[in-house]
Amino acid sequence: MSLNGFAPILPEFLGGSADLTPSNNTFNECSVSINDQHGSTDMNFEGNYISYGVREFGMSAIMNGLTLHGGLLPYGATFLMFSEYARNALRMAALMKIQSIFVYTHDSIGLGEDGPTHQAIEQIPTLRMIPNMSVWRTCDAVETAVSWRAAIEKKNGPSCLIYSRQNLAHQTRSDEQIANIAKGGYILKDSDGTPEVIVIATGSEVDLAMQAAAASEKNVRVVSMPSTDAFDAQDAAYKESVLPAAVTARVAVEAAIPDGWYKYVGLNGKVIGMTTFELKQGSIHITKKSVQKSKRI
């Protein structure tokens, strides 16, 4: 857990969750609850973790206030779907260029008993559209650690750290690949020669891209792009090294609205994403029973 690594060296961390601490996993080994856990009105103000209750906007607005106060680095968590309730506070953090860290879990259609109302479709793309907001959607523990470091080091604006509920496969990387994660997009798997196809993916879809590349008879390059804004900030030479203009056969895969990916795949590329709230048989069909049978969708 990334927080267990960072928390001991960051006493300014002030964590919290909007009534979803066990699901968000934001209570780390250094966390001490400010709220009394036994119904008393007494508060432990030597603590460093706030149970905000079902108050996504309130949590996010309080985080902004704490950041502006100074001396604290607040992070607060809820399900990605509930970022909708907090939009005004997220936008204000971006407008004011302050370092609030918004943590969102349960990031896609790979959810169980709560159904379509909790299955985020348009949230990731619209968060990416907020100016000065850094958005990270990671595929495993290594990318997750890098996303936390990026949010901690970004002093001039907020970050959204978006994580899956599924168990995700660890991806093997070289030291160079690990260093390139912070650039927002990097080559996770390369072809033997010039790639015939480039597959771009994020989050839980990265492993699907890796499996597809392994099964393909073509020379396939897989690009993991956990942060489009971090990738866009790189120089032209680096972006060309990852997404060479000469390779126009490109596919982007993300379990969300596909529109934002066309600037990376071009007019000749394809995007596999979600264009409807319905999960229709023949594309992706998820039932409570199937989710219970498998931790992976």
TrEMBL record:
The keyword Metal-binding applies. PROSITE patterns: TRANSKETOLASE_2 (PS00802). Residues 1-170 form the Transketolase-like pyrimidine-binding domain. SUPFAM superfamilies: Thiamin diphosphate-binding fold (THDP-binding), TK C-terminal domain-like. Its cofactor is thiamine diphosphate. InterPro entries: THDP-binding, Transketo_C/PFOR_II, Transketolase-like_C_2, Transketolase-like_Pyr-bd, Transketolase_BS, Transketolase_fam. CDD domains: TPP_PYR_DXS_TK_like. Keywords: Magnesium, Metal-binding, Thiamine pyrophosphate, Transferase. PANTHER family: TRANSKETOLASE, TRANSKETOLASE 1-RELATED. This is Transketolase 1-like. It comes from Priapulus caudatus.
